[in-house]
Design goal:
The chain is α/β, with parallel strands linked by helices. InterPro entries: Asp/hSer_DH_NAD-bd, HDH_cat, NAD(P)-bd_dom_sf.
């Protein structure tokens, strides 16, 4: 594409990110970009542009030969995959911000690019304004990485920050985040750590050349966090953060998990607050690198979309250079973490300890009640993750994941109705 010619863009979606991207383009006419058509789902909805600027049939954009590229920023993962995959089959250039769709379908989308000659970029899908995808794909394309970890979700980080600042409980902090637009009406994807899990899957393809299955990765959220947990961490000079991590184990295998973690001031993530995200890249030769920026919002994420659009004009494609040397994966079996576990009901806590293979003497008491600490098999946490969530059990890791000598046996009994 000649940068002197106007670039004609078809925009699919006009929510927070779509409007943010539109605003940025409108404020920079020197970029020579023109959003010629905008596809939305709901006719008659009040919008900031006149009705004639919109179409209600996104497929029209896919078939329009006058458009140089497409930008997809809708919140429906299934529809996003249908549109993006159809566009790639036509050999089109596409930028997307849909992390759930990418985490589920990335191998197929990479194959479609190779088969039909299209291009897909998705910097905006991971950590908002932070350029982590391209950094991993290009700058660290041939350097071994010890770990890539960070705070990948601004909504849960905002809630934890406000709980720490105010000494409040989870409910009021979540309500505030929702009122300010930092959390969705249904907060499950963010607070349950499903969103950062999707982002970890995407980064694994660029950091290690591995396509992970999201459902096989342990993700524990903060639905059960309480003021007692925040106070417990503070008493030790620590904060609770939801940390998503990709880690090379001593034998070279790759593992991944997303959990709350107790962090001290020595961690770069300790000072990442509110809706900000932070990423730590631990490279074998370059050493640790730290990136921080706004992880959500129309303009921060719209700026990442713009970066992809300009990169598409220059002909940039992701390399996925590490696929040929991708490590073996070990996600749950044979691994353990040092865990902190709390539930306000002592009976529930004792039962949970049997699931996690912690002895009764692991229980400790502070001014806020009972909690337990000890080494817990990751497989146990993964096997009981739904029950832990439904019962409101809060689990945080202390330190990093590590291998154990032998994989522990684990329970499969899911009859926990009596505890609910």
């Amino acid at each position: 594409m000649n940068e002197n010619n106007p670039l004609r863009i078809g925009l699919i979606g006009f929510g927070c990110v779509g409007q943010g991207f539109y605003d940025i383009v409108a404020q920079q006419p020197g970029l020579n970009l023109t959003i010629t058509c905008i596809a939305v789902k709901t006719p008659g909805k009040a919008r900031s542009l006149p009705a004639h600027r919109f179409t209600y049939h996104a497929d029209e954009l896919l078939a329009d030969p006058e458009l140089d590229l497409l930008v997809e920023v809708i919140d429906d993962a299934a529809e996003a995959f249908r549109l993006v995959s159809a566009a790639l089959r036509r050999g089109r250039r596409v930028a997307t911000a849909n992390k759930a769709m990418l985490a589920r379908h990335l191998p197929e989308l990479v194959q479609l690019q190779a088969e039909f000659g299209g291009t897909l970029l998705y910097e905006a899908a991971v950590c908002g304004s932070i350029p982590v995808v391209r950094t991993l794909d290009q700058y660290f394309s041939h350097e071994p990485l010890r770990a890539v970890s960070g705070i990948f979700n601004g909504s849960s980080n905002y809630v934890l920050t406000r709980m720490s600042e105010e000494g409040s409980d989870y409910g009021p902090a979540l309500a505030e985040a929702q009122a300010l637009g930092f959390a969705e009406t249904d907060p499950t994807l963010d607070m349950g750590a499903f969103d950062p899990r999707s982002k970890a899957v995407i980064l694994a393809a660029h950091a290690y050349g591995v396509f992970l299955e999201a459902d096989e990765i342990l993700n524990l959220g903060i639905e059960g966090v309480s003021a007692a947990d925040i106070a417990h961490a503070a008493a030790q000079g620590q904060k609770i953060k939801v940390v998503a991590g990709l880690y090379r184990l001593p034998d070279g295998r790759l593992t991944a998990l997303v959990t709350p973690q107790l962090l001290g001031p020595e961690s770069s993530l300790y000072t990442v607050e509110r809706e900000f995200n932070g990423v730590v890249i631990d490279a074998a030769f370059a050493g640790p690198q730290f990136l921080q920026g706004r992880g959500a919002g129309g303009h921060p994420t719209g700026s990442a979309v713009l970066a992809d659009v300009l990169a598409l004009r220059r002909g940039l494609r992701y390399q996925y250079a590490k696929q040929a040397t991708a490590p073996a994966v070990q996600l749950t079996h044979g691994l353990e973490i040092d865990a902190y576990v709390r539930h306000p009901d002592a009976g529930v806590l004792r039962e949970v300890l049997t699931w996690l293979e912690l002895p009764a003497e692991a229980v400790q008491t502070d001014v806020h009640g009972s909690f337990a600490t000890g080494a817990v098999p990751v497989q146990q946490l993964w096997a009981w993750r739904k029950e832990l969530r439904s019962l409101g059990v809060f689990v945080a890791r202390q330190g990093e994941v590590r291998p154990v000598a032998a994989t522990a046996t684990f329970q499969t009994n899911e009859a926990v109705a009596a505890l609910a």
